[in-house]
Design brief:
Helices cover 65% and strands 9% of the residues. It has a two-stranded antiparallel sheet with strand order 1-2. It is built from 7 helices and 2 strands; from the N terminus they run E-H-H-H-H-E-H-H-H. It is mainly α. It starts with a strand and ends in a 19-residue tail after the last helix. The chain is rod-shaped. The protein has a domain of 80 residues: Band 7 domain (Tetrahydropterin Synthase, Chain A, 2-Layer Sandwich). The relative contact order is 0.08.
Amino acid sequence: VTAVVYFSVIDPVAAVVNVVNFNQATTQIGQTSLRNVLGQSELDDLLAQRNKINHALQEIISEQTTRWGINITAVEVKDVELPAAMQRAMAKQAEAEREKRAKVIHAQGELQASASLAQAAAVMSTQPAALQLRFLQTLTEIAVEKNSTIIFPMPIDILEPIMEIMRNYAKKPEHEPLNGSRSNEPSLPR
C-alpha cells in the first residue's frame, strides 16, 4: 500500500527544537500509522472506504505532529497492490458469490414454476375440459416439430377389449385355424 502525506510547517522553531528531523519523523509516523490503520481494517473497507481511512490517518498523524509545529493537510492512500495469491483468493471468493446468487435465483425460479404447476394442476383437476384442451395443445406442438412417431396416451380401459382379443388368440393351438374350419392347410395370421 502506498500513501502520501501532505504537510506544512506552521511553527519552524518547534519543528527544529522538538524533533531532530521533522521531515523524516513525519514520514515515519505516517508509515506506522498507515500500518496500524490497515491492520485494523478489512480489505473490503480499504477498497471501498478510502476517504474514511484517509481521514482517520490524517487525525492520527496530526495528533503526533502538531506538537512539532507540523500541520497535516491531507493523507491519501494511493495504490493498493495485492499479492498474486491474494488476488486469486479474491477472484475465487467473487466467483463463489456469483455462483451462490445464480443458485438462489435458479431456486427461486424453480419455486415459482412449481407454484404455477400446482395452480395449473388444481384448475385441471376441477375442470376436465382444461385437461383435454392441454392434451390437444400438446398434440399440436408435437405435430409442429415434424416427429415421425406420435404417442397418444389413452386410458387402459379403452385398450382392454383389444388386449382380450390378443390374449384369446395367443391361447389357441397352432394347428387350429382361426376361421373355425379344420383343414390341414396352414393358416396365415391376419
